[in-house]
Amino acid sequence: MLKEYKSVTEVVGPLMVVEGVSGVEYEELVDIELQTGERRRGRVIEIERDKAMVQIFEGSTGINLQDTKVRFLGHPLELGVSPDMIGRVFDGLGNPIDDGPKIIPEAKIDINGTAINPVSRDYPSEFIQTGISTIDGLNTLVRGQKLPIFSGAGLPHNNVAAQIARQAKVLGKDDKFAVVFTAMGITFEEAQFFIDDFKETGAIDRAVLFMNLADDPAIERLATPKMALTCAEYLAFELGMHVLVIMTDMTNYAEALREVSAARKEVPGRRGYPGYLYTDLAGIYERAGKIKGRDGSITQIPILTMPEDDITHPIPDLTGYITEGQIILSKELYKQGIEPPINAIPSLSRLKDKGIGEGKTREDHSGTMNQIYAAYTSGKEAKELSVILGESALSEADKAFAKFADAFEKEYVNQGYYSNRSIEETLNTGWDLLRIIPRTELKRIDDKLIDKYLTEKSEVEVEQKNLTKKAVNKSIEEIDKQRAEQSKASARATLNDIKGQDPVSQDRK
Fold first, then answer.
1. For all residues of the chain together, what is the average pLDDT?
2. 492 within domain boundaries
3. Which of 167, 373, 418, 426 is the most exposed place for a label (fewest CB within 10 A)?
């Protein structure tokens, strides 16, 4: 039988101190009954002798120290999992909020998870197609990878997140693919945008959504990504699915962590964040990966807004250390109306070389990726130089690179939020743009690939144009001939009519 305590001695923010406890464990779930009969939940975050510090999920408003009853439930916070979770929407604590039936769980799993043994980890090596050229072509996402998106205030990272959730898939496999989408600290309007977008496009049929709104307690925000990852682990390692986890916004999660840390009166670290911010973020990010002998996998795309667009801020800085690269959104491109505004130059996927090439994407992927990146960089430098020295100071090659940079942004990057490009379309678009550059400047692609994808294709296009031109000319000649014959026949008929009606002609006859 559970013990009931009425020894609450202190309440500070979302924290509550209970004295005289025994047999209580770290992370244990707590049931709190207020004097009004209302029930709230919490978890033990610190134990010192006979004192336990409890983190209250719903907040501490209205708690009376004398009349509050506390019960320690003997198990950590758990999520009831089932295949029926796919297609459903939950709050940050795993409760359904879509007016659907309650989930009948097949199992209840501790949301804190268990660390993946490094020896049992399988190396990420399979390409995931997002349908976004800047990611697929230049910063490839690999199954089992964690690739964050760094955004800024006012940038459309929500649109990018929704686009990836709609379009992402593993090529060449019949395996089941699912998306676990979790939002932390977002507004009601943003939450409704995601829900409506998923339902209208049909993406909800393969997705599980966890929504924590801005007015929800900060403590719930700390549990939300763990809930989502617990669901992802069940789908991946129990049901054998390939799961893509999209988490937005990790900055709101870190802010909630700082708020709780301040309430605990801990010594602050950089910019007021707790010293264990790195460890806490690593505990979330490292739950991605593949396990040898298991069919499923978890791939993560955390999304965070950089405070004051500062990439050296603790949140993006530590995230960059833990994860395998970053996709960076650009305000400059956004102002130009480019969708999605992904800046290719500072973006990086450290595992992109492992998921591309013959048998995965295409044999020319690596070469075109390197050449496009080098050409775009050279083009941006040439444009900056022309601003200082004038366009006349540029060489012909520099002018070609500058032209390439403009075309790259307008045709390659600017594809829209509802354009789902296959990897073949992305690679072919890259070759079309590389025609702007003189062949002598294509130094990062093998000559055999240039002959195959650039020269031969060009000859085919010329031949097609010639055939089209001949067909058009032939059609014009036939039409002219037909018109001439019709004109002659019409003239003869008119002349015969005139002769038949002329009285002088009749007299002569």
1. 88
2. no
3. 418
